[in-house]
Amino acid sequence: MTEILNIANLQAWYGESHILHGVDFTVNAGEVVTLLGRNGAGRTTTLRAIMGLTGKRSGSVAVHGVETTRLPTHRIARLGIGYCPEERGIFSSLSAEENLMLPPRLKGGDKAFSVDELYVMFPNLKERAHSPGTRLSGGEQQMLAVARILRTGATLLLLDEISEGLAPVIVQKLAEVIRALKARGFTVVLVEQNFRFAAPLADRFYVMEHGRIVERFDQSQLEEKMSMLNEFLGV
Ligand SMILES: Nc1ncnc2c1ncn2[C@@H]1O[C@H](COP(=O)(O)OP(=O)(O)OP(=O)(O)O)[C@@H](O)[C@H]1O
Ligand SMILES: [Mg+2]
Hints:
Layout: E1 3-14, E2 17-28, E3 32-37, H1 43-50, E4 57-63, E5 66-67, H2 73-77, E6 81-84, H3 96-101, H4 115-121, H5 123-127, H6 138-152, E7 156-160, H7 168-183, E8 187-191, H8 195-198, E9 204-209, E10 212-218, H9 222-233
Parallel strand pairs: 3-8, 3-9, 6-7, 7-8
Antiparallel strand pairs: 1-2, 1-4, 4-5, 9-10
Bound molecules: adenosine-5'-triphosphate (ATP) and magnesium ion.
C-alpha cells in the first residue's frame, strides 16, 4: 500500500489558541477516509493545517513522502492536493465556467478532468456555465467547488462538509461522484457531520475529539462501533 498522507503528532495554533494537540493518521492511495467528530473537534483545523493555513504548526505532514510543514500553501497544493473548504470559495462575480477555469492545472496532473468530462459528471453545471456564481443554488455551488479541484489534476482530495445543508438528491449525487472518483484511483479525506453520507463511502474512519484522534477503525468494524459513535456523535 502506498501512503499518500502521513500525519504524525500534528499540532496547530490559531494565534495563542492551541487547537490540535498531536493528530496522527495516515491515508493510503485509493482510500476514502473519513474524519468524524463533534462541532469544534478540530476536523476543519486538521485540513487547514495540512494545507499550511493555520497559524503556527508542528509535527509532521508528509504528502507522497515529502515533508510539508515548512512549505508554503501553494507548494503544498502542487503536490497534488485539492482542498475544498467548507465555505466553498465560489466567486460571485465570475460565471460558473470562469470559476471552474480559475485554478491552474498541476504539473503532471494526468488524472485531471477536462471541462467536457466535468460537464458529463455534473450536467447541471453545463446548463449553468454562463450564470454568475451568485445565481447558482447551494447544491450547484458545491458541485462547482468539487469540479474545480478535479480540473486541476489533484488526486488527494480534502473535502470539508460537502454534503452540509444540501437537498437529498444532491447529497446522493455527491456520493455517486465520490464512488466514481474512488474507482478512478483518487484518494479522499472526507470531513463530515453527516454520518449517513460518509459511512457507506469510507474505507476507514477516524474520530476526533479536542484536537486529537480518539478512535480509528475500518469499514468491517463499523457495526461493532455504532454504540460508541452513537454516544460520541449522536448518530
Ligand atoms: N480562526 C480561528 N481562530 C481561533 N480559533 C478557531 C479558529 N477556527 C476555529 N477555531 C477553534 O478551533 C476549534 C476547532 O475548530 P474546527 O473548525 O477545526 O472544528 P470542526 O471539527 O471542523 O467543527 P465544526 O466544523 O463542526 O465547527 C474550535 O474550538 C474553534 O472554536
Ligand atoms: Mg469544520
